[in-house]
Design goal:
single chain, two-stranded antiparallel ribbon, globular, four-stranded antiparallel β-sheet, mainly beta
Length: 76
């Protein structure tokens, strides 16, 4: 899983946070490039979510697994 994830995220955009959904079927990652990505357990990139204006430093699934909260910083 991690090998597949590492090969699909640009090398200059480090993963800064990650969280599994409550079912353990999807992994959400936040990156320094400001994108959140959702991965399957097989390592397939399922979805790329909207761009923050700066790095994502934290993210968390809600209990039912239908929302992700992300936090980061942005530069003016």
């Amino acid at each position: 899983m991690l090998r597949a994830l590492c090969s699909q995220v640009p090398s200059n955009k480090d993963v800064t946070s990650l969280d599994w959904n409550s079912a353990g079927s999807l992994l959400a990652t936040g990156s320094y490039d400001g994108f959140a990505r959702i991965w399957s357990t097989s390592g397939k990139l399922e979805k790329t979510l909207g761009q923050h204006k700066g790095p994502i430093f934290a993210l968390k699934w809600n209990k039912s697994g239908n929302y992700i909260l992300s936090a980061g910083s942005f530069y003016l």
